[in-house]
Amino acid sequence: MSREDRKDQKKQKDRKAKAGPPQSKELLVPPRGWYGPGGGRVGHLDPPTMWRATTVQACGMWPFAAGSGAPMIGVPLGQHLFTGATVCGDPLSWFTRARYISNPSLFMLGMPGLGKSTLVNRMLIGLAATGVVPLVLGDLKPDYADTVRALGGQVISIGRGRGGINVLDPGAMGQAADRIGGEAGDILRAETHGRVLNMVAALITIVRGRPMDDHEQSVLSAVLHHLRERTAPGRTALLPDLLQVLTEGPDRVRAVTLDRGNDARYRDAVDPLHRSLLGILDGPLGDTFASETSTRIDPNAPAVCIDISGIGEADTQLTAAAMLAAWSDGLGTVAASHALADAQLAPRRWFFTVLDELWRPLRAASGIVDRIDALTRLNRSLGLGDAKITHTLKDAEALGTDADRAKARGFVERAGMVVCAGLPRTEMEDLGRVVGLSQREIELVSSWSSPPGWGVTTEHEEPPGRGRFLIKVGGRPGIPIKVAITQAERELHNTNTRWTPNESADPVTRNLAQQVARAAQEGPLPLDPRLTGETV
């Protein structure tokens, strides 16, 4: 190669080195457009609308399948708070179909106004659609009466001047025993006797403020047996009849008291019981429990609600007694239905009971927790699901004795499902020692108990935790959900009806109030010139 050729080759290499790497012919456009005027720059991309469908409906559009991790068996409750997946569940479906829980019961805790009864109302509606019979045994506000009416069910009012319950009435269980007959009927009558005895003992416990003595229960049982034998067919004994038997002192009752023919010994044995029964009849409970049952539960009703909202808030004894009588009557109806089904005289039906505001009967008297435990412990063998609702675990801690507190905590421990609405952190830590909650779950539920901010100006601003719940089942991780109610549910269930403005008020006054509210948002109102001394 000549000297000139080498110079030309070197110049060519230098030009290539100065030019840099070869440029791509492809024009790369930034994902959000070019910067600068006319570049079409997009600062924010709206998320696409999410639609949910089954694989049968959308198989051609979306041929892929992936599990969402949320349970899909039972009543649709709401969306998973983090994934948006639909969450379904209720105690009966998770016990009978999914086998997630070993006991068809639910225990719900949460601060007032966060939607506990709204969620239970949704379960009532969903279960009623599958043929389950909802039983609201003691509606205090009422939260469920309108829902039961909309389902075509039966609403029974209990209270002074409204209606009463005869606790000696065997009710549906007595009717079922007569219809079944034979040995099975006798067994059901014996069960009826035990339920009536338990209910009368509960009333005496409420009046006394302490449990009955063991020998008094034996006397009471003998009196009830004697009263049933001497009561004419077609007639139901009343509490005054029970007092009459104690006064007469028949041999069957005297034998239990060990009076040995001594009338003074008999009177000493039965007088405390006699005084307590007089206290029921002549005291705050007499008007409600001394006469015939005003309206019996219809065993064929699609839903039943016993409304005790007419009883005053301060009347704790009557409230607790009415709730216990309603539970006893309702659960007796359940037992009668299953006895008829076992005898092939009626179709099999399942029931779902709601025991709301559980703290009120628990605080009525020492030992009342035993009566509630006796009424509700055997729900699994009765074909019965239940939901117990209260505010906090401190409702159980406020009971008088350590034994009562331990039994009340057992309601939570035995529950198949535990549902938490917003609770303070200290409450969640106490619950975590019973249920087993992670630190993240405690922080999440605690954040739902915060009130709205001070700067809220909208009319219907809700607390941040309203409609949010954490569902715990055994040692599984909790399922956080958000419940969005429909318009129909909103119309049926409004626990703040007393705070709704009266639309029939004077329109001039209503218009003036609206003007003042708008002015308060815009700034301080000017003073009236007559108050400042200025010339008008």
UniProtKB/TrEMBL annotation:
Residues 9-18 have a biased composition (Basic residues). Residues 1-33 are annotated as: Disordered. This is ATP/GTP-binding protein. It comes from Streptomyces davaonensis (strain DSM 101723 / JCM 4913 / KCC S-0913 / 768).
